[in-house]
Design goal:
The protein is of the alpha/beta class. The protein is built from 7 helices and 12 strands. The longest helix is centred in the C-terminal third of the chain and has 26 residues.
């Protein structure tokens, strides 16, 4: 008997991606959305297509994801974002890999990163990978408020097929995501009693731009590469600005 699979996702106003995402998961035995109170048709579309939707206020990414894992009936979890494309080939590989019953408790999947409709091949994105498949008996999220990752008790493998990650199509949407990440990172530093100084405000953002645009060849992606390096370096600056504001009790 093949192991059963639960597909999980965190959602917020994803109505444009819901139908395609659910249809790509026809191989999953259970699909659950943990929705952060969407105001569009995300929940209605998902329920109409047979998805179990649980609405929960968003606090941070690790708590949201660990809560989702707790709702799963099955041990094997796949956890993709709705802006990631799960191809039929990847779906078949997921099923066949889990059915092997080997010693691996989790699997990395490499991602092709798309920004403003263009595939980004440099700037550090060329090595982008993430654990998307894992056995919940041996894995959990590490507790980070943002950039959460899987803690595993066992071996990690790699899948051959890649997932296409169509990150936000508009600049404003992508910038909103980075703003949220900056806020959560600032909260993490505040809890660790880290205090910002001139190094954090000036050197760190400049280094981020230099590393991404020059060292990792982001300039080869032309204007999209420049935009990505710029917004990510500004997000670093904003992280420490928000941290500085927390210490001064400024809203």
């Amino acid at each position: 008997m093949e192991p059963k699979i639960t597909a999980l996702a965190i959602t917020l106003n994803e109505e444009d991606n819901v139908k395609r995402y659910i249809q790509s998961l026809s191989f999953a035995d259970e699909i659950i959305f943990i929705d952060s109170n969407s105001t569009d048709a995300t929940v209605a579309i998902a329920k109409e297509l047979g998805v179990k939707v649980i609405q929960r206020n968003f606090d941070d990414f690790s708590k949201q994801r660990n809560f989702a894992v707790e709702q799963a009936k099955n041990d094997w979890i796949i956890f993709f974002d709705l802006d990631e494309i799960i191809t039929p080939e990847l779906g078949k590989e997921i099923v066949s890999t889990i059915s092997l019953r080997n010693d691996f408790v989790a699997y990395y999947i490499n991602r092709n990163f798309f920004f403003l409709g263009k595939q980004i091949k440099h700037g550090g994105w060329q090595t982008d990978k993430s654990i998307k498949i894992f056995n919940k008996k041996n894995c959990s999220y590490n507790g980070n408020l943002v950039h959460e990752s899987i803690k595993t008790k066992g071996k990690i493998g790699f899948l051959k097929n890649r997932v296409n990650h169509y990150s936000y199509k508009s600049f404003d949407k992508y910038n909103e995501k980075l703003n949220l990440y900056s806020q959560l990172q600032a909260e993490t530093l505040y809890l660790k009693n880290k205090r910002p100084n001139l190094y954090h405000f000036f050197i760190r953002p400049c280094y981020r731009f230099w590393w991404q645009y020059i060292c990792r060849l982001g300039f080869l992606d032309k204007k999209e590469g420049f935009i990505l390096a710029y917004v990510h370096s500004f997000a670093v600056f904003k992280r420490y600005l928000q941290l500085w504001m927390m210490y001064r009790k400024i809203e």
